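Subject: for your reference before the review

Hello V.,

The reviewers asked for a structural picture of the protein, and I figured it would be easier to keep everything in one thread rather than splitting it across files. Below is the amino acid sequence we used in the manuscript, unchanged from the supplementary table.
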Amino acid sequence: MNKEYGYIRVSSREQNEDRQLIALREVSVPEQNIFMDKQSGKDFDRPQYKKLIRRLKPDDLLYVKSIDRLGRNYKEIQDQWRVLTKEKGVDIVVLDMPILDTRRGKDLMGTFLSDIVLQVLSFVAESERSSIRQRQAEGIAAAKAKGVRFGRPAKPLPENYLSVYRRWKAGAITGTAAAAECGMPLSTFRYQAKIYEKRLNKQ
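And here is what came back from the structure prediction:
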């Protein structure tokens, strides 16, 4: 007996999958046949998607809410579409795009139209992903220009650092001894010394 499956993907654990879940329930996909990944759509290396692929048999039906839920990589979406429809013999329905329903138009013209729409939508999905990356990069650059710091906050220097630094600079102690007194590696001691000296030069 042919089975119906659904696939859901959200990009992070904070995103809500309810909209996709409701859409799959509306077409009566059994709960146990719904597979969900909470990770990026940049590739198809996803645990639940792989599990779904292993479960699918010829003439089964797979529902997805929209093409970007399947993935966001233009070439890989097309490759997976071929794997599912040609190698696995599965039908696919993209609920947000009725023309992407492989049960319909299995003639040459229907297949041709579906291929064109798939290519366009796959391209749009990847273009959107590239735009998101560009906006993120621009946002980070703008924030850095305003003085916003990213990453872990710098560890405060030990209270004795300046006095030890002055003794080391005067040649009273070696760098190794100075670093040991401050409780830090020699490379860190010298790195902090450079930062301090740059700050002095700007004053």
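For the response letter, the relevant points are probably these. The longest strand covers residues 4-10. The chain has eight helices and four strands.

Happy to draft the paragraph if you're swamped.

O.
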